[in-house]
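Sample entry (95 residues):
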Amino acid sequence: MPANQPDAPLRAGALLRQPVRDLEGRIIGRVADIETTRDSDGHERVTALIVTTGRWGRLLGYERHEAGGPWLLEHLARIVLRGHLTRVPWHDARL
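Predicted structure, serialized as tokens:
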């Protein structure tokens, strides 16, 4: 991910709904969610972007494979949401 200041704080709102491109420059979707991990200093670091090709909206956590809930919502999420999602590692993200 190219950035002017790699250590500068980044707000999630600055990433959500942003178009993400592949290595050839084609738009592959828009950012729907952000994966993070906590480093040894206690800071959250972005590890991947969840990109959707479908309509962007509140995914209510059902875009995650480990999400559980009422069986009907889980079933609909599997059909509707997850079919349009791609996990893009942070180092491969081109915004």
